[in-house]
Design a protein that fits this description.
Distance between the termini: 64 Å
CATH architecture: 3-Layer(aba) Sandwich
Structural class: alpha/beta
CATH superfamily: Vaccinia Virus protein VP39
CATH class: Alpha Beta
Number of strands: 8
Helix content: 25-40%
Shape: globular
Order of helices and strands: HHHHHEHEHEHEHEHEHEHE
Strand order of the largest sheet: 1-4-3-2-5-6-8-7
Strand content: 15-25%
Number of domains: 1
CATH topology: Rossmann fold
Largest sheet: 8 strands, mixed
């Protein structure tokens, strides 16, 4: 019997449920490409002594299953609409077949508003990131229905994509609409909008690139404003120095419309990269 040490042992121990399923459950062996996407939303990282490194994640992998239709759409169209995490930067000209500006949206949910924006702006390329597999499946299905050609989607941790897969100065903008608010104070560290996240985004923005955020949590809106304003490379476009009215080009989501009916507020922030 072989005995494992160091990284290999720690990796197998920390992923023991997966290996148990792999060896004793034939279903894992027959899972389709779409089934496996859920298991690869982030890469395993280790400390220098070989131990698995736990991360503070801004997302939770919610339970949910791909419908048979969504699964078939992902399996059939991932090659044309999907991108996988890689440790080298994407070649956007090769991917989209043009030099149009690329706009990244993180956390697109079920993808309807993202696809609608891509349809409305054929002269722009859109890249969406979402870790919820059914949402990715729904987005792919809707994109196929609309015949969208200027959209690619990724099912992976956005922070890793920004760090490894997107070159500096290659994005025309970032869209972050209604991210998880992590409303409990003890969980605020999990909010994706933190100084280091914004610094990373700014590095990826091209000249005059923008950051557009929206939230229906006033406390989170205040945090977003503080973090964005504290970055000296960004300029607030708000005439009042804080928030902007919802621009017409941002589609009204069903979730947001329901919030309006209930009297909930929504705060939009729009900052542009200062190239001085």
């Amino acid at each position: 019997m072989a005995y494992y040490t160091g990284k290999a042992f720690d990796f197998m121990y920390n992923h023991r449920q997966f290996f148990t399923n792999l060896f004793f459950n034939s279903e894992v062996m027959t899972q389709t490409f779409a089934d496996q996407k859920r298991k690869t939303v982030e890469t395993a990282e280790f400390t220098e002594d070989g131990r698995y490194k736990r991360k503070v994640r801004s997302f939770v992998l919610r339970t949910g299953r791909l419908s048979d239709f969504q699964k078939s759409m992902m399996n059939a169209h991932w090659g044309e609409l999907g991108l996988d995490y890689q440790t080298t930067p994407f070649n956007f000209v090769k991917i989209y077949g043009n030099t149009n500006p690329v706009i990244l949206e993180i956390g697109f949910g079920m993808g309807k508003s993202l696809v609608d924006m891509a349809v409305a702006n054929p002269d722009k390329n859109y890249l969406g990131i979402e870790v919820h597999t059914p949402g990715v499946g729904a987005c792919v299905a809707y994109a196929v229905e609309k015949g969208v050609k200027n959209l690619r989607v990724i099912c992976h941790d956005a922070t890793e994509i920004l760090r490894d897969s997107i070159a500096d100065h290659t994005l025309a903008g970032l869209q972050l609409f209604f991210p998880d608010p992590w409303h409990k104070a003890k969980h605020h560290k999990r909010r994706i909008v933190q100084p280091h996240f914004v610094e990373q985004v700014v590095k990826k923005l091209d000249k005059n690139g923008f950051i557009h955020m929206a939230t229906d949590w006033e406390n989170y809106a205040e945090q977003m404003l503080d973090v964005l304003q504290s970055n000296t490379n960004l300029v607030n476009t708000s005439a009042t120095g804080d928030y902007i009215p919802r621009p017409d080009f941002r589609p009204l989501t069903k979730f947001e419309a329901r919030g309006h009916r209930l009297g909930h507020g929504v705060w939009d922030l729009f900052f542009v990269k200062n190239n001085v």
